[in-house]
């Protein structure tokens, strides 16, 4: 493949722009806010699940408390009714009086037991309500932090995108100075070799693979016409001859 030396030199400008674009893409993918936002989102979702579970338990305990209080009211009402009957003097039969007194005592014990249940349930409800409050506060804090971090992430991403747009425009202008066949080869090699397709030959060394060329290879390149596109024998990238190549005066076409 042949191309004017100036067009080959423009490959180095293009490669520098592509390397900058690659670094910007890496910066964008590696923004610390991305990981932090994901962790905060996961934390907020976990707190949501815990909060729903705690709220469900609060509802269950509240229902249990209402049932226990209702049972206490029923026993108390029945005990009050029996006490009134006992105090009314209407019951004169000794056995009936004894049975009624026994029932009142039994109801008293039952009422005490049920009131203990109510107290236990109220304590459970108090603890669960405190847990709900704690989870709600933690979730609110996590959501607030998530909002803050995503805002910083989006700002940083926008700045990177602005730089990327500018570099992409510069790349388009540089690419216009390179023949289509040479540009096609460059793009093909860039996809094969980790984004680096063209490298300068500097002081007898390929700056793509960083290996020094042998004397035989340097002599072959020295004898190659300036408009001939040469490639590194080791890494197969395009080698661009420069004033720092150490070849002396390029061969004439």
TrEMBL record:
It comes from the Bacteria. Residues 63-90 are annotated as: Disordered. Pfam families: CT398_CC, Zn_ribbon_9. Transmembrane segments: none annotated. Residues 205-239 form the C4-type zinc ribbon domain. Residues 14-193 form the CT398-like coiled coil hairpin domain. It comes from Nocardiopsis terrae. Gene3D superfamilies: 1.10.287.1490. The keyword Amino-acid biosynthesis does not apply. PANTHER family: PHOSPHOLIPASE C-BETA-2-RELATED, SCAVENGER RECEPTOR CLASS A MEMBER 3. This is Nucleic acid-binding Zn-ribbon protein. Residues 63-87 have a biased composition (Basic and acidic residues). Residues 97-145 form a coiled coil. Keywords: Coiled coil. The lineage of its organism: Bacteria, Bacillati, Actinomycetota, Actinomycetes, Streptosporangiales.
